[in-house]
Amino acid sequence: MNRKSKTILCITVLLAVNAWILARLFKTEYTPFMGSIEGAYIGISRWMIAHGLRARWFPLWYGGIPSQNSYPPLLHWLVAAWSWLTGMTVAHAHHFVSAAFYCAAPVGLFLLTLRLSRSHWKSFIAAALYSLASPSAFLIPSIRHDLGSVWGARKIQALILYGEGPHVTSMALLFFALAAIHAALEYELGWWTVTAIVLSALVALTNWLGAMSLALAGAAMLLAVRKNRLCRLLLIGALAYGLAMPWIPPSDLATVRMNAQLVGGFPMGMPQYLYLAIWIAAAAAIGLGLRKTKLSEGTCFALLFLFFMAVPPLGYEWFHAYPLPQPDRYHLEMDAAIAIVAGLALGSRRLSAGPAWRRMAVPILLLVLAVFQIPQWRNQVHNMLPPFDITRTVERTQALWLQNHFPGERIFVTGSTRFWLNAFADNPQLGGGFDQGRTSRAVADVVFAVPYLKGNGADSVALLKAYGVRAIAAGGKDSRDAYHDFTDPSKFSGIVPEVWRDRDDAIFEIPGDGSLVHVVPAASLVTSGPLDWPAVNRFAAAIDHSPAVTAKWDGTDRAAIQTRLESNDALSIQITWDPGWRASVNGANVAVDRDNLGLIVLHPPCENGCTVNLAYIGGTEATIAEIVFTTSLLVCGFV
Question: What percent of the chain stands above pLDDT 90?
């Protein structure tokens, strides 16, 4: 059998095995795991279908955020496109596309290992182990406990139970990107380099963890390759980021970096930076040491990649030390690195030479593993995906009720309902589904304070009114919401009307006119903090006495506001401030300020009435990002 036939056969087997294991997910619309974040991802894809790919402002979360802050967009683009092409619901398309990338990941790992080793046997062993084993369950007690067995499928659990579709997708793309980068470092500039650039950009556009893993793998490859390829790697990295920059601008990187330390509780301080320095120095030392050995460059890379991927999850699990935020989540990449190293070791000539029993040991091991694991993992998928009626969930019931009774108006939900709200409804919410992307610290404080502070019902209502919220869903101790965030849901009773209830879940109406644009005395603006209750109540009262304002929106990021202001008035717009907003009156620019609630404030010259044109254009950064993207695209044409 020639080399091409062997490659096709191996890929066919890997795809068939993984597709058979995951077959049920391809046919699944909704899973029973309402605590999963995948509802937020479905909501993003649903919004993309409605508003296209070029809408700059995402109004659904956190009082509004730039679209690029909602999440790296690639998987959601693909889900939206697949839903549009096939007629599948967005939820079904999300599972279908995620399952397809799950099946593609072992193929990518096989091709990467083939590039590293030139051996189909070693590569197939690595891909088979990756498809049928979860080494992290043996090494990390918390994962073993979560799975219930060392033989469970962690990747399947991550994908189905925790909704890690973007992470799993980015890993599949990561393996293909690394294979292309390895080829680009071997050959002269050309199509391999362009392929490496494009695939690297796609990894970054899929998931933040995948992007970090790619950067670490690039460092491993640089240390492993004995020729000086620093300039080539820098070229690939720079052009890849240039292609991704319009959707991952520097401000987004800074926002995610800061918020990732808060979400999950992974602050970066002196101990973490010291650990980071030791980690990098140790990797450099190991790399220099490996270069002096007779090991192949591929084996050196595999060992360094394993070191880079193992330190965050194992260091956190064993010593509670971490060099970067959310270190525990890199155990999936660690599993892949272990599979590659194991494939290179088990497929070595020493094991394949000698007596027949030694030559047959590894094939028999793989056969036993396959016979035992394939049915077990397929049963795990079936057990996780029983017939499920989404219409009976409180998340969907509340979302549809809110959309029907408060169409287009901002609401406040928390717990699992905030993840799933926009998978079913178009209402903007003050919370959201991806806390790493929120840009307003004031909104973060409010989203935390409203459900967790006790006995401040009247103040909470004033605070919600200040942010343009028209309804709040609050669940008690027996709520069907997955997280039970509210500590004192009864604080709203008797203060605002209860308009819906199902057992221990209720919705309360917040008085207001539904508008997010009001004329208020400038002196009533909040200049202290979002939890300064006298200031918040003063501002909320001023909103109640606002004269009529007409706001007509064109899409999500452009509005014409007709109003009249006195000299001591301000135009308060209950949308999160961002430097990308621009305002003008009769062609003259108006400064776009903000109050200490993080909301937009304008002072237009409108004593005799005027039309204020408000638009989100992304600012200077967006313009630079588009220039960099175009330049990178052109440079790729000359590589």
Answer: 87
Q: pLDDT band for 348, please (50, 70, 90 cuts).
A: confident
0.85 exceeded by pTM: yes
**Residue 332 neighbours by CB under 8 Å, 6+ apart:** 136, 154, 155, 158, 164, 167, 168, 171
Q: Which amino acid is at 118?
A: R
**Residue 55: C-alpha distances to residues 14, 49, 67 (Å):** 39, 11, 7
Instruction: Please identify which residue in the block is written with the tokens 């050995």.
Output: 293
Q: For the chain, count helices (H), then strands (E).
A: 25, 15
> What six digits make up the tokens of 538?
């003063």
| Tens-digit pLDDT profile for residues 382-414 | 999 999 999 999 999 999 999 999 999 999 999
Residue 555 pLDDT > 90, yes or no? no
| For residues 567-585, average pLDDT | 95
**Cβ within 8 Å of residue 33, ≥6 positions away:** 160, 161, 162, 163, 384
Strands 599-602 and 569-576: antiparallel
- On the question of pLDDT at 570 being above 90, the answer is yes
Model pLDDT for residues 74-88, shown as the tens digit of each residue: 999 999 999 999 999
Residue that the structure tokens 């460092």 belong to: 219
User: What are the structure tokens assigned to 566, written together?
Assistant: 């006195």
Parallel, antiparallel, or unpaired for β 469-475 and 410-412?
parallel
Burial class (CB in 10 A: 0-12, 13-18, 19+), 637: exposed
Which residues are CB-contacts of 396 (< 8 A; sequence separation ≥ 6)? Answer: 390, 420, 424
Give me the residue label for tokens 């008797």. 494
Q: Cα dihedral angle (182, 105, 97, 373), rounded to 10 degrees?
A: 180
Half-sphere exposure of 377 (CA within 13 A, CB side): 28
Q: Provide CB contacts within 8 A for 561, sequence distance 6+.
A: 517, 549, 550, 551, 552, 571, 573, 611, 612, 613, 614
Tokens of 435: 């806390």
Dist. CA 276–CA 374, nearest whole Å: 39
CA 239 from centre of chain: 22
pLDDT number for residue 354: 60
Q: 437 near 255, Cβ under 8 Å?
A: yes
Residue with tokens 């709520």: 479
Lowest mean pLDDT, pick from 202-211, 403-412, 483-492: 483-492
Give backbone dihedrals phi and psi of 370, rounded to 5 degrees, phi first.
Answer: -65, -45
Number of C-beta neighbours around residue 150 at 10 A: 14
Residue 408, CA atoms < 13 Å, CB-side half-sphere: 7
How many C-beta neighbours within 10 Å does residue 229 have? 18
> Given this model, what pLDDT does residue 209 score?
95
Q: Under a CB-based contact definition with an 8 Å cutoff, are residues 71 and 48 in contact? A: no
Q: What angle do CA 269, 274, 278 make, to 5 degrees?
A: 150
Alpha carbon distance 369, 548 (integer Å) = 71
Beta strand segments in 352-451, E? 410-412
94 near 82, Cβ under 8 Å? no
* Token pair recorded at residue 605: 């010259």
Q: Kindly give the residue spans of alpha helices, DSSP state H, lying in 52-190.
A: 74-86, 90-117, 120-132, 135-139, 141-147, 154-160, 165-186
On the question of pLDDT at 427 being above 80, the answer is yes
Q: What's the CA gap between 320 and 341, in Å, rounded?
A: 26
How far is residue 266's CA from residue 462's CA, in Å, rounded to a whole number?
32
